[in-house]
Amino acid sequence: MKRMRFAGSMLAVAIAAPVAAQGIAARVGSAPDGSVRITFAARAGVCGDGRSFIAEPFGSPDGVTIYSTDGMSDYVNIGGGPGSFGGMKNCAAGPVRVMLSVANHRVIDVRPYVGPATSRTTGADTDAGTVSAPAAADYLLSIAATADEHASRGAMLSASLADSAHISARLAQMARDKALRSGVRENALRWLARAGEREDDRQADQVARTIAADESDVTAVRERALRTIRHTTENDSWLRTQYARFTETSLKERTLRVLAEGGGTTNSAWVTNIALNEGEPLALRERALRLLGDEMGSPTEMRQLYEKVSEPSLRERILRIAGESGDAVSLRWLHSIAEDATASMSLRDRAIRILGESGESAQTAYLRGLYAQVSDATLRDRILRTASEGGGEENQRWLRQIAENEKEDSSLRDRAVRTLSETGIATSALVAMYDAINDRPVRERLISIFGERADRAGSDKLAAIAKGDADYDLRRRAARRLAEAGDPRAKQLLEDTKR
Fold first, then answer.
1. What is the pTM of this model?
2. Which residues of the chain are under the pLDDT cut of 50?
3. Strands 53-57 and 64-68
4. Are 243 and 212 in contact (CB under 8 A)?
5. For the CA atoms of 208, 214, 215, 221, what is the dihedral angle to 10 degrees?
6. Distance (Å, rounded) from C-alpha 446 to C-alpha 434?
7. Residue 152, Cβ neighbours under 10 Å: how many?
8. pLDDT score of 71
9. What does the alpha-carbon distance between residue 138 and residue 18 come to, in Å, rounded to a whole number?
10. CA dihedral 253, 259, 262, 267 (to 10 degrees)
């Protein structure tokens, strides 16, 4: 008998909410253009500042999700728990106050606020009063189904805050409805995942799986469905099986990402197999490697994978992952690749670039030492450029030594001068280099740099070269550079070089 009374009360609530929602719709629809406020009870644990953010507990005891009041950013999970937010103490419980913007009897914007009353909520043109929370949720979801994306997001956020409201079934219906706009359905899926977990509605995962597997559906909606599937043993197994059935690359990539983020030895082994499978498209194998590096694989495992793949692009990806890990063993491994004369030039070049990008002075020092060990001009050129990117007086001195070394290849001396200039070395030091160097191409490079800098030291040096350099072509080049810089001395100097 008690069960019958309980079932009857639930049925009464289910019937009453849509009826009450119609009453809210009538009140809002009859309001003049402007802002309309409705107020209802918030779920337990929901708080806000009444102005810019709303928050609720999520995940761990210290986890919290923050939503912006315009509904455009959400699911930011941070530690500290509600009421703190990394030092913010102004998250207060309170009713939900939803501000509806109405034009021509249509709702065009929805913004919820929780916590104390503020200027954002006290200045409504029309106050529709305090309403039933379940009825408000029902009404707001009806708005979400037909409004533009911005208003739809705000309406779904508002509905999710309502106390005692069960919204997962309605969200599931919206997610499945192919007559609705894709953006609305994607948003419904996003909120369905949260509401389904909160309301213990087990159909949420099934809805997402059905949509994801539907080849006749919109790809963007199917991808959103994949993102909302919870990580359970059953769901992960379904995803691994479904991967082979997808024909769109974007869905395969999303499946890889979802499984990698889920973690676990089974998922890790499966993603690894995708990376090693030569029958898979190269782009998907590379994506698998990136995910292994970001989410799952240890530096040791990634180095082992390097020996198992042969495609240069995949090996380069592993090198980059090693550089991002930044541990001492990975860096030493990159040294071995850079020094390996049997490795391809592109891989050695990539290893050198990654070591330079680490920003560590120890790695830059290593590369300066490596310069003398490699004979290939391309690799030497890369090391010179890497040194300039590292900056600092030590790199400047080394680059200057290369530039002034008459035994060096002229093109490398030219590169040293160019990279040295990019380090911000003073023009006066470059002027001194011009006088110490006899290599003509390098002097031409310095003349170009003086012209580009167009500072006093560079302009004066150009004028001196144009007046007295023994090389006629260099004199003409210097005079032209002065002219391009608008220096008044240029006209006469050009005339002089004609004689």
1. 0.77
2. 1-17, 86-87
3. antiparallel
4. no
5. -30
6. 7
7. 26
8. 60
9. 6
10. -140
